[in-house]
Amino acid sequence: MPNFDSPDDVLHGACLCGAVAYRAQGPLFATSHCYCNMCQRQHGSVGSYGNVRVDGFVLERGAAELTHYQRSPKGRCGFCSVCGSMLYWCGTETPERIALALGCLAPGWTGKVEREWFVEHKPAWLPPA
Ligand SMILES: [Zn+2]
Ligand SMILES: [Zn+2]
Questions:
Q1: What is the CA radius of gyration of the chain?
Q2: pLDDT in the model for residue 5
Q3: Complete domains list, the chain, with CATH
Q4: How far, in Å, from the CA of 99 to the mean position of ligand 1?
Q5: Which-ligand-closest: CA of 21?
Q6: Does residue 26 contact residue 8 with C-beta atoms inside 8 Å?
Q7: 75-120 residue pLDDT tens
Q8: What one-character-per-residue DSSP string does 48-68 give?
Q9: How far is the CA of 40 from the centre of ligand 1 (A)?
Q10: Which ligand has an atom closest to residue 66 CA?
Q11: 7 C-alpha vs ligand 2 centroid, how far in Å?
């Protein structure tokens, strides 16, 4: 059961169509659900993330398909221009880390997220915590 809590763990992720794939060195840390309006619109749901160190992130496939969107002065997102999968978020205030969208990890992460952001925007349609 992968919980990616060791520096020896290697995480793998990909978009829905498979054009873009990456690997990243563990550990996965600072996991969260984000309910901000930007994440909701970007994901079509809520944003669920786990961070890795940016220097351990390697794009394995899809440099031509991977597209970035500067969604605010605080950060930009990486997504697949073919299938639209939202792959990660990079914050300007935390350039040493990259927030991977948990749903694109394969195999998936089996832990529980540590925190919730912007709970005042948490949608009523989510199940209770
Ligand atoms: Zn894709
Ligand atoms: Zn957010």
A1: 14
A2: 86
A3: 10-121 (2.170.150.70)
A4: 18
A5: 1
A6: yes
A7: 999 999 999 999 999 999 999 999 999 999 999 999 999 999 999 9
A8: EEEEEEGGGEEEEE-TTTEEE
A9: 19
A10: 1
A11: 26
